[in-house]
Amino acid sequence: MRSIDFSSAGKAVSRRDQDASGIDDSTAMRWVDCVRGEDSFPPALERVLHPRHRRDLLNASHAPYFENTDDYELLIFASLDERYECFEPRLHTLAFVIYGASVYSFRESNDLALDEIFGRWSSRERKFPSDVASLVHSLLDEIVNRLLDLRDPLDERVSEWQRRLLDPDDPFNDWQIIMLARSGLRRLNANLELQQEALDGWRENTRFELNARQQVKFNDLREHIGRMERLLQGIRADLESLTQIYFASTGQRTNTNVQILAVISAIFLPLNLIAGFFGMNFDYIPLLSEPFGAAIVIGLMLALVLALLWWFRRKRWY
């Protein structure tokens, strides 16, 4: 467990692995960051937490949502798990309990989404939030910005797949990766929709009065989520179109190969017929005893080949 106290003098105190029983939620604004499985619930929350919400806070795969009570507000967001590739995104549940003047966050031990902002506030490299609503916005904005960082890697990976799929000299067979990417992006897109609903629910039902500037900031935050959602929809559509284009180009190449084989077969079929005719075991066959019989037959066969090639070219069969 770690925490930052935002005093009126603009000082921050970082507590790591300490008991939070001394926190008074009615005084200075605080952010208390808890790790699931390592820290018990802070005593200040133990008194008021509903049993169902305790289970929600400990659930690492809970869908984003918002719910408020007479004592506190519960907001659950999805945080990106950076251990996985961009085309197979995985999410952690990052839950926030807003109780009095304190904001409690509950995360997985390997979820580092809030480490950077914690470090900047601890070292006073970043301006402290002026109120609880600004603190909530800063934490949510940090999570959403990490989701937005997926844009460039996803674009680069899709461009690479496009190049490989449409390159006839590249035997692309990584279809499992594309299928994983499609399913992973679909799950991420569904979570972003729930994330927007949770954010809207908190804004409409929170007990904090949001001023005009904060309203603009939360509108921007919602727009960032919507932008990421539209990006994922576009990438999923690109993958679907790319798959269809690949199969269409593969079918076209197959048709071209079959057409070439058909032309070759059509050329050699009459040649085999002529060769079979002169290979029959009869006493008398025209041109068989002639001095220039072989030359005449070979010339006839070459003329037939040229005539067939001219005909196929005229019909644009090759």
Give the number of helices.
8
Q: Any guess at the CATH architecture of the largest domain?
A: 2-Layer Sandwich
Tell me the distance between the termini: 73 Å
What is the CATH T-level topology of the largest domain? Beta Polymerase, domain 2
Which CATH class of the largest domain is shown? Alpha Beta
- Order of neighbouring strands in the sheet with most strands: 2-1-3-7-6-5-4
Multimeric organization: single chain
What is the percentage of strand-forming residues? 5-15%
Derived from helix and strand composition plus strand pairing, the structural class reads alpha+beta
The helix fraction, in percent, is 40-55%
Total of domains: 2
Looking at CATH, the homologous superfamily of the largest domain is CorA soluble domain-like
Order of helices and strands: EEEHHEEEEHHHHHH
Average pLDDT score: 81
What does this structure look like?
By secondary structure, this protein is an alpha+beta fold. It has two domains: 2-250, Beta Polymerase, domain 2 (2-Layer Sandwich), CATH 3.30.460.20; 258-314, Magnesium transport protein CorA, transmembrane region (Methane Monooxygenase Hydroxylase, Chain G, domain 1). 54% of the residues lie in helices and 14% in strands. It is built from eight helices and seven strands, in the order E-E-E-H-H-E-E-E-E-H-H-H-H-H-H. The chain has helices at residues 43-46, 51-58, 115-122, 132-148, 151-165, 175-205, 212-278, 293-314; strands at 2-6, 14-16, 29-35, 65-68, 72-81, 90-99, 102-107. The chain has a seven-stranded mixed sheet with strand order 2-1-3-7-6-5-4, with helices on both faces. A hairpin with a 2-residue loop joins strand 6 and strand 7 (102-107). The protein is rod-shaped and about 115 Å long. The relative contact order is 0.09. Mean pLDDT is 81; it is low at 14-26.
